[in-house]
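INFO batch 0412 | record 1 of 1 | parsing
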Amino acid sequence: MKPTRITNSIRSLRFARDEMTQAELADRIGVTRQTVIAIEKGRYSPSLEMAFQIARVFAVPLDQVFQYPDDAEESS
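INFO prediction complete | emitting tokens
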């Protein structure tokens, strides 16, 4: 099984939101700053619940925060 390749736009969303810090985001969703850093860098995939909390902080749909590459072209 391949490792997950979920990407995210958290960093750009933070900067668009008055340059919200990683610590501020962590505080809003109830995790440590280190967790936010790991999610941003793609080293950690958040739970579905946490993913929705992050999207809610930025008031955007979930798929605007997290993207999963489409492999349809490769499998055909």
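INFO post-check: The longest helix spans residues 48-58.
INFO record closed
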